[in-house]
Amino acid sequence: MAMTxxxxxxxxxxxxxxxxxxxxxxxxxxxxxPLFRLLWIGGVFSFLSVxxxxxxxxxxxxxxxxxxxxxGLVYLGFGVPMLVAxxxxxxxxxxxxxxxxxxxxxxxxxxISTSIGLAIVLDIIEFWMxxxxxxxxxxxxxxFGPARVAFTAQLAGRENLGNAMVLSQMALNxxxxxxxxxxxxxxxxxxxxxxxxxFITAGIMLLSLIVTLRLPPGEPLGPGSGKNPLAxxxxxxxxxxxxxxxxxLMATSFTVVMVGFPYFAFFPSxxxxxxxxxxxxIRARAIGGLSTTQAIGAVLATIVVARRATGDRVWIEQxxxxxxxxxxxxxLAFAPGFxxxxxxxxxxxxxxxxxxxxxxxLVMTKADxxxxxxxxxxxxxxxxxxxxxxxxIGIIADRIGLRQTLxxxxxxxxxxxxxxxxxxxxVGEYAQGSEPASPAAD
Length: 442
Description:
Elements: H1 34-65, H2 68-95, H3 98-121, H4 127-156, H5 161-187, H6 193-212, H7 229-241, H8 244-260, H9 267-274, H10 280-305, H11 314-333, H12 338-366, H13 372-400, H14 402-426
């Protein structure tokens, strides 16, 4: 493969060869790889659009119904398609050109934003439309997410993969600072409102698509299996089952995301019902403030862990961040006022981000490149489960109270991480018990 820059990739989107990796040092090392940098910029636009949509959809759902259950149903609509379709999204990422899959997801999300904005303008918006839009967005993410992560590995190269995964998480968290707060402010502007926010998110996603068009096709690594998609999916499941520590990481991520991550779905209820902020404009700003504070903590955490995505004790640090996440949810449950809640939410954002970034880095560095799409798609099932779990959690919160529910959620997260710590030390890298070296060493 001819190359003028050792950090460049070929026309298929392949990074430096495994025999001659180009390792980049520093917190932002992977961004020195030109095409990964381009993918990262496109991701910033995509994440910003989606984060704004999440905020305004929850705000609109609560305005239309006024219940925690409705917030949970919106997330349920997002979660069910991800739960069902994500595994096949991973197969698509391993079988098709990754750029093509990413663009398809971007087009779907753009169409969703435009449609809901028009429904608001025409004054025909109803709650069921929000559920349907969440379902379509979940379907798009089922293919967009695995393709983007697999493309990250392909463009950045294996030696930079841990750092690249954390930087991708940083992009997500950074948009969580500006996205929800920007959406909250714009919702309160009379000439923009909720419909204007949806149109703005459509425009931002189109910017991401323009950047994506500059990337190489990202063709599959290897000649392909020649099997049908279901057979490829089964092959991916067998691959994970044959690697006990990879299985432990994925099971822990599934539990933590499903049980712990729904806490931010209930920000509207926390602000309105628990803290009694009833004015519409003030409530929108307060919700945006919680989301922004959470995201600031998340960005700071990813900066801290960016240099720690490889090493001999990554799995221990991952567990520490996870335990801190459970503790911060419990802290939020006992928040006596909005100011204390801001502190708890900042800690929750930092801890959840540190856990997720390190867990994803461990998973991807332990998986072989030809399985990256399927491994990531099975990881994403957790986010589908999180959407599904939000609905019953919302019902429980309506029955026993939001504070009590948050306490239970935080406790379950802590238990999951303790189990992970014990299981990790008791299982080997492979079923046969061998322990080969990896970039994220044990």
